[in-house]
Write a structure and sequence with these properties.
The protein is an all-alpha fold. Helices cover 76% and strands 0% of the residues. The structure holds fe (ii) ion (2 copies).
Length: 221
């Protein structure tokens, strides 16, 4: 009796569950890709100009390699499932939008400003610290979701991310301290949280219910 009354509901929820999870995973995939590509670009520029110490560059390289590994885990997940990520683009990029909001430019355009304006790199470091610390809390929440716990592959992916993330903000924090620059304060945390809230309650639901939201035709790399 109970099975007969609940199975049609359970069955009808499956496409919605798949859509919701694919949307969250697309968001992660997009952000991991943007994260490692932009870090790689930044590392190249900083290496050429010897603006920061080697230990800081090493920390950034480890960070970039981890984000690349995370991106590839999501890519393999989608490839394995036989579906592509949703084409969420810039509208859902937490770090891109945060830099745009606080610093007034998209991250790839920061280029020369990093070398010409003394506070640009420290400000970027503060934003990275703020997003990484809040991002770790989000990963822990997601890892607790029943839908993730029930899915061994996704559980493994988020377990790896949870293990990697705590080290990501450390080189930026150490470098800010070493140079006597300000650490992230209420301003960075406020904008990071406000943006995260906006993405969670506005942008993700709009994408979820948008019947025209397409899947990517190619992976980002
Ligand atoms: Fe990551
Ligand atoms: Fe990270």
């Amino acid at each position: 009796m109970e099975i007969a009354s609940t199975w049609p509901i359970r069955l009808s929820l499956i496409p919605l569950k798949e859509r919701f999870l694919d949307l969250i995973l697309s968001l992660y995939s997009y952000n991991e890709y943007q994260g490692y590509r932009q870090l790689e670009g930044l590392i190249d520029e900083l290496t050429c100009r010897t603006l920061v110490p080697d230990w800081f560059l090493e920390g950034m390289r480890k960070h970039a390699n981890d984000e690349k590994k995370h991106y590839q885990m999501f890519k393999h997940y989608f490839a394995n499932e036989g579906r592509m990520p949703f084409d969420v683009s810039r509208s859902i990029g937490q770090y891109d939008l945060l830099v745009r909001l606080v610093m007034g430019v998209w991250p790839p355009s920061l280029g020369e400003r990093i070398f010409n304006e003394a506070d640009v790199l420290p400000q970027l470091a503060r934003l990275i610290i703020a997003t990484e610390i809040r991002g770790l809390k989000e990963v822990r929440k997601i890892l607790g979701w029943r839908w993730i716990q029930e899915h061994q592959r996704l559980k493994n992916i988020f377990t790896v991310i949870e293990a990697d993330e705590p080290s990501h903000y450390l080189p930026y924090e150490a470098w800010l301290k070493a140079t006597g620059a300000r650490l992230p304060g209420s301003r960075e945390r406020f904008w990071d949280h406000a943006l995260h809230l906006f993405l969670s309650v506005c942008v993700i639901p709009v994408h979820f219910f948008n019947p025209f939201l397409k899947r990517r035709t190619q992976f980002q790399d």
